[in-house]
Amino acid sequence: MTINRRTLLTRTALGAAALALTKQNAIAKALAETGLKDLYKDDFYIGTAIGNARLTNPPAGFNALLAREFNTMTMENDMKWERIHPEPEKWVWDHADQFMQFGEQHGMFMVGHVLVWHSQTPSWVFNDDNGKPLSREALLARMKSHIDTLAGRYRGRIHAWDVVNEAIDEDKGWRKSPWFNQIGPDFLDHAFRFAREAAPEAHLMYNDYNMHNPGKRQFVVDMLKRFKQEGVPIDGVGMQGHVGLEYPNIAEFEKSIEAYAAQGVAVHITELDLDVLPVAWDHIGAEISDNFAYSDELNPYPNGLPADIEDKLTERYVQWFKLFLKHRENIARVTFWGTGDSESWKNDFPVKGRTNYPLLFDRQYQRKPAYQAVADLKK
Ligand code: GLA
Fold it and tell me: Which of 75, 162, 227, 246 has the CA that lies 20 to 30 A from 56?
C-alpha cells in the first residue's frame, strides 16, 4: 500500500494519540500506585494490622493494595502469647514468619505486637504445673524467656515492639492483672529491660487505649518520668485510637499527644479505627472481655452506610488527620487496625454480628470518600 500524505497524517495523528494515551495511562497508573504512604511520606509512617487469614489467603489485589498504601505493618493477633506460644514448650512461627517475609519484601517498618499483656495470654503462663500462681521470681523468669525467644528471633528485623499493652486501668491506676498481682508494678520495668536486652536495636513502646483520658494521661506521664529517672528503656507511647464519631474529645487527645511528646518519647497512633455504630456501653475503650447482646437497634446500617453518616465519618477522619499533621514532628506512625471494613474487629465488638464501617477501604477494598479526603489533605 502506498503511503500518501493523508495516510501518513492519519498514522501520525493516531501515533500521537496512542502516545498520549500511553502517557495518560502511565500517569493514571502512577496515581493509582501512589498510596497514603507516599502522600504522607514526609509526615509519618502509615500502617495497617493484618490477620493471618488475609496473610495466607489474600483476596484478589489485596497484597498489591498493602504494598501501595502502607509502609508499616502489625500482626493483628499472631504474635500474641496465646497464638505464638500457646503451650509452655510450643511455639507457632508460621504466620509471624510469613508476615516478616511480606513486610521485608516491601521494605516496611515492622511492628511487633505484643510482648506482655493480660489479654489473649493463656492461664498457664501465670501458674505452675499444679495450677498454683507462680511466685514473682518464677513469673519474671517466664516473662524473660518469652521475650528472649520472641524478640530475639526477630532481633534487628522487628523495628518497634509493643512491649507492654494496657497495664493501666483508666484513672484507677494499675490494672490488677496477674502480671501486676504476682510481680508488682515494676513488671513493666522488667519487661522493658528484657526487651532491650533481647532486641537492642528495636524501638520500645508502651501501648494503651483511652490515652486521651486525663487521669490516664497523668499516670502515663508519671510513669515516663520515673522510667527516665530510673533508666528504664522506653522510646515510644502507643495511643491505640479506637475512636468513634462522637468520642473521644479531640482536644483531650491532643493534650495527651503533647504531654507524652514532652517526656521525650515518640507518639504512635497504633490501632486507628472509627466506629460509626450506636455506643453500646457506658464506657468507651477496648477491654476485649466486654461484650453486649445484639439487637437490630444497635445495628442500624446492615445494608450500607447512609450518605449523612458517610459524610460524618469522612469529616471526622479529616479532623483526626489534621490533628496528626499538626503534630507530625512528634508522631512517628499512624496504623489502622485493619484494612477493609469487612475484616474489622469492630463488626463484632462490643456487640457480635454488626455491620460497621470503621476503615478507609470498603468491603470490596475500594477507597472510601474518607480515604479521598485524607489523601486530599496532602494534595
Ligand atoms: C486491643 C489490642 C489489640 C486488639 C484490639 C482488638 O486494642 O491491643 O491487639 O486485640 O484490642 O482487636
Answer: 162
The alpha helices in 271-344, defined as continuous H runs, are: 307-326
Could you tell me the CA-to-CA distances from 6 to 15, 17, 51, 252 in Å, in that order? 14, 16, 61, 71
Catalytic residue status for 271: yes
Cβ(276)–Cβ(313) under 8 Å?
A: yes
Strand partners, 80: none
Which residue, by CA, sits nearest to atom 8 of ligand 1? Answer: 165
What pairing do the DSSP bridges indicate for beta strands 45-50 and 331-336? parallel
Residue written as cell 449523612?
Answer: 308
Query: What pLDDT does residue 286 have?
Result: 60
Q: Which residues fall within 8 angstroms of residue 86, CB to CB, at 6 or more apart?
A: 92, 122
| Atom of ligand 1 at shortest range from CA of 114 | 9
pLDDT along the chain (379 residues), means of 10: 37 45 52 86 98 93 97 98 98 98 97 98 97 98 98 98 96 94 98 98 98 97 98 98 97 98 98 94 59 86 97 98 98 98 95 96 97 96
| Distance of CA 243 from the midpoint of ligand 1 (Å) | 13
Residue 107 backbone class (left: φ over 0; alpha: ψ -120 to 50; beta: rest): left
3-state DSSP assignment of residue 272: strand
Q: Which of 288, 344, 346, 349 to mutate to test the pocket of ligand 1 (most atoms within 8 A of CB)?
A: 288
Residues with CB under 6 A from ligand 1: 113, 165, 209, 240, 271, 286, 288, 345
Predicted confidence at residue 33, as pLDDT, reads 74
Peptide bond just before 358 cis, omega within 30 deg: no
Catalytic annotation present for 310: no
Q: Kindly report the backbone phi and psi dihedral angles of residue 75, in degrees, each rounded to the nearest multiple of 5, phi listed first.
A: -85, 130
Angle at 142 between CA 138 and CA 143, to 5 degrees: 115
Q: What pLDDT shows up at residue 293?
A: 82
Domains annotated for the chain, with CATH where assigned, are: 43-376 (3.20.20.80)
**pTM (2 decimals)?**
0.90
**Residues forming beta bridges with residue 87, ordered by sequence position:** 90
CB 136 within 8 A of CB 184: yes
pLDDT number for residue 294: 86
Q: What is the DSSP string of 184-231?
A: -TTHHHHHHHHHHHH-TTSEEEEEES-TT-HHHHHHHHHHHHHHHHHT
